[in-house]
Specification:
Layout: H1 2-15, H2 23-31, H3 35-57, H4 60-74, H5 76-96, H6 99-108, H7 110-123, H8 133-157, H9 165-168, H10 170-173, H11 177-180, H12 183-206, H13 216-239, H14 250-257, H15 259-268, H16 280-286, E1 295-297, E2 306-312, E3 325-326, H17 332-340, E4 342-347, H18 355-364, H19 377-382, H20 390-395, E5 400-405, H21 414-420, E6 425-427, H22 447-457, E7 463-468, E8 489-490, H23 495-525, E9 529-535, E10 555-562, E11 573-574, H24 575-585, E12 588-590, H25 592-600, H26 606-618, E13 637-638, E14 644-650, E15 656-661, E16 667-671, E17 674-675, E18 679-682, E19 685-688, E20 697-705, E21 709-713, E22 716-720, E23 723-727, H27 738-745
Parallel strand pairs: 2-7, 2-9, 4-11, 5-6, 5-7, 6-13
Antiparallel strand pairs: 1-12, 3-8, 4-10, 9-10, 14-15, 15-19, 16-17, 16-20, 18-19, 20-21, 20-22, 22-23
Helix pairs in contact: 5-6, 5-7, 5-8, 6-7, 7-13, 8-12, 14-15, 18-24, 24-25, 25-26
Length: about 750
């Protein structure tokens, strides 16, 4: 029996015997190759290709589909029109999460529906340029439907529809994917994409080809004509107000004007279009002979207070909600501040998302209404160019300027944006030893207090601090995830919705605690100070105007706490005016746009002239500065505390324990330039389980952000006789921009 098995195995091995490659023979053939051989090879390849195509043409599937293809080619324009309408209806049904809502949209606003369908129809004109018309039709259809699916899913997680700006933050968003997708959804997404790709590939093979004569020049001319007609139709649609080029609310715009138009508007309509009357004379007049570029204050240096702005993620006063009550006050600290200090409604530029856009308005004083729909100026403008801001305005008066955020430093390109807008330092999550997170995995806000104090300790004079919280961030779970909530929500019957609000309200309660603790920490410094708390936008909860006492979805709340005796003056204020308002209360007149608001608010042509000024500063010739720019380059460093090493202790068998200060989970250890495997234990110890050290080895610890971005490097240490010797001056240069040093490292 064994002999039989061996004989069988031998026969199998003979069948699958690997032939030794004839390398010498191959080189000989290449060396002696003839022109005729090359021609014969390509001729044979062409004939083989033609045989394959012929076989496909004569396949059972192709023969069965030939009558369909011929019919579709005869009535292709009508077919494209019907297909465009079907696709438009389908993506609207997916986006609105309702076939009925999509039907109402189609029947109640037929002109808008047909305009969007015409846009899709025009994209099908490119099929006449190729023989594989069916395949190209499938590709175009899949792309439009994918757009609808992406938008539909996004609207399940937030209130801002899917738009072109999402592609610009996609790289950063990957780091937060677990906050938006659970395991089942990720698997479903992967399976769905794979299935579509396989199907599309199969249709490339099975879809057949146009057998008639190709007239590509005429086809190209036809494509140009159709796109030209679409341009004319679009101009008429805007002129007749079928659609609009300005989206006061991008979510409502998608509902009113349709996904195809709104998405394409977000692709092509970005930045600020040059106003008709833009010229140097106009800008000089608007800026009061350039007097608005001044940087001055009526206070003495000793009287100038610290200025702290705290942006609370998704915060609003839950007492404003009329459809539920809470078991106790969810915001006792902030409510006490509302009673005793200046406060009111805070008008923000978006609902349920757009944190970075609220930041933009607050820090620059610029109005987002002049930018493209759904645009993030952080990504489209400030990431790549310098601009004045509150940081430059206050730096001109001797303030230290610091930004802090308990989330990733690269998200929304903040690390580069804050560098380009004049901040001295930016402390992001990568520099924080975060021990407490929400049930959804977001860092709790209390971590910001110590880092704010550390940032203020780096300067001897006054400080401007811009803090961005993250604790209140969604998605808000429908299941009960807080075992013993401090605050109970009452009045909501649906269990899932109740759980979402209960989770949110308890985050608000802890954010309120953070606000109260920050005030105490600032009071203990016994320095003149002002703290502005405000919400960046409403939470993503499907709120309607009638759910709120203020009956307005763009309102959150703000309060201006101080210990210098400012008069209480309550009023409602938009985000782009809050900085100028606070500075005016402090008798500070610094920064071109802030001075403009202080002098021109409530005057004729205020908003029209603001648009001109914004265009001049960000896109124009910067006439307002007359060559004297408030900022020419960034100088910001990441973090304010150095990582220092104390000693390194060998393990009994293998590896070492590295001891020092200011380690975080984002710390990476390098030995002679090679990254080591590490285990972060706490802010004073990192284990190196596989590291082997030799005399004179160089050890350095670096702080990295997402996308392997080097934020800050500590001093190098030499390992010798079991001791570490610091090489001073080898760390990140704190007098230069982290961006410049990163480019040098690369």
């Amino acid at each position: 029996m064994d002999e039989g098995i061996r004989r069988t195995q031998g026969e199998i091995m003979k069948k699958f015997q690997v032939k030794k490659p004839d390398i010498k023979g191959t080189f000989h053939k290449i060396k002696n190759i003839k022109k005729e051989d090359v021609k014969a090879y390509w001729k044979a390849k062409k004939e083989r290709r033609e045989r394959i195509i012929e076989e496909r043409r004569n396949s059972a599937f192709t023969r069965k589909m030939q009558p369909v293809y011929r019919f579709m080619n005869r009535i292709s324009l009508v077919f494209h029109a019907l297909l465009a309408c079907m696709i438009n209806y389908t993506i609207e049904a997916i986006s609105r999460h309702s076939a009925v809502e999509a039907w109402n949209y189609m029947t109640e606003t037929p002109v808008v529906f047909l305009y969007n369908s015409f846009m899709i129809f025009v994209t099908f004109s490119v099929v006449y340029l190729v023989k594989r018309r069916m395949f190209v039709r499938i590709i175009i259809s899949v792309l439009w439907l994918a757009l609808g699916v992406a938008n539909g899913y996004m609207l399940m997680k937030r209130v801002t529809p899917f738009n072109a700006q999402d592609f610009k933050v996609a790289k950063d968003g990957i780091t937060l994917i677990n906050n938006y997708f659970n395991g089942v959804e990720l698997v479903g997404l992967a399976v769905g994409i794979s299935a579509v790709v396989i199907w599309v590939i199969s249709m490339w093979r099975r879809g057949g080809q146009y057998s008639g004569k190709m007239h590509r020049l005429w086809a190209l001319a036809g494509v140009v004509v159709w796109f030209a007609i679409y341009g004319i139709v679009s101009d008429l649609a805007v002129e007749k107000r079928v659609v609009s080029t300005y989206f006061g609310n991008i979510a409502f715009a998608y509902e009113d004007y349709g996904l195809p138009y709104c998405f394409m508007a977000s692709v092509f309509n970005t930045g600020i279009t040059e106003p008709n009357d833009y010229n140097e004379e106009t800008i000089v007049k608007i800026s009061n002979q350039r007097e608005m570029t001044k940087n001055e204050t009526g206070r003495s240096k000793e009287e100038l207070p610290n200025i702290i702005f705290i942006q609370l993620e998704s915060y609003f006063d839950v007492a404003e909600a009329e459809f539920f009550t809470t078991s106790e006050d969810a915001c006792p600290n902030l409510h006490a501040m509302y009673e005793n200090y200046s406060s009111g409604y805070f008008k923000v530029p978006s609902i349920g998302a757009g944190t970075a856009n609220t930041e933009f308005e607050v820090l620059t004083g610029m109005n987002l209404r002049y930018f493209g729909p759904g645009e993030y100026p952080y990504k489209t403008v400030l990431k790549n160019r310098v601009s004045e801001s509150a940081a430059t305005a206050l730096s001109a008066l001797g303030y230290g300027t610091h930004a802090l955020h308990n989330n990733g430093g690269n998200f929304y390109s903040r690390a580069r944006v804050f560098n380009n807008t004049g901040f001295d330092s930016y402390t992001s999550k990568e520099f924080m030893n975060i021990l407490q997170t929400t049930e959804n995995g977001w860092a709790k806000d209390d971590i910001l207090i110590q880092h704010i104090m550390d940032a203020m300790d780096t300067t001897e004079g006054q400080d401007f601090v811009f803090g961005i919280s993250v604790q209140g961030h969604g998605d808000y779970p429908e299941e009960k995830v807080i075992e013993n909530p401090k605050i109970l929500v009452e009045g909501i019957e649906d269990e899932g919705i109740k759980n979402k609000w209960e989770y949110y309200v308890n985050q608000v309660y802890e954010m309120d605690e953070f606000a109260g603790n920050l005030v105490k920490a600032v009071e203990e410094r016994q320095e003149p100070s002002v703290i502005v708390f405000y919400g960046d936008h409403l939470p993503t909860m499907g709120l309607k105007a009638e759910d709120l006492k203020g009956r307005y979805l763009y309102n959150t709340n703000y309060v201006i706490w101080d210990n210098i005796g400012l008069k209480k003056e309550d009023r409602n204020i938009p985000a782009y005016q809050i900085m100028s308002d606070v500075l005016d209360r402090l008798d500070i007149h610094s920064g071109t746009v802030f001075n403009y608001h202080q002098e021109r608010r409530k005057t004729k042509n205020y908003l029209a002239d603001l648009e001109l000024l914004q265009y001049d500063i960000l896109y124009g010739e910067q006439y307002v500065y007359d060559g004297k720019l408030p900022i020419t380059e960034g100088h910001m460093v990441m973090g304010v505390r150095d990582v220092t090493l104390k000693n390194i202790i060998p393990h009994l068998e293998e590896g070492y324990s590295l001891y020092g200060e200011n380690f975080t989970k984002s710390s990476r250890v390098y030995v002679n330039g090679e990254r080591q495997k590490t285990t972060f234990l706490n802010n004073t110890r990192i284990d190196l389980p596989e590291t082997e050290l030799n005399e004179e080895d160089v050890i350095v610890v670096c702080q990295y952000g997402s996308s392997d971005t080097l934020f800050r490097k500590a001093d190098e240490y030499i390992y010798q006789d079991g001791e570490l010797t610091v090489q001073e001056g080898t760390a990140t240069d704190k007098t230069r921009s982290w961006v410049d040093q990163l480019e040098e490292e690369e």
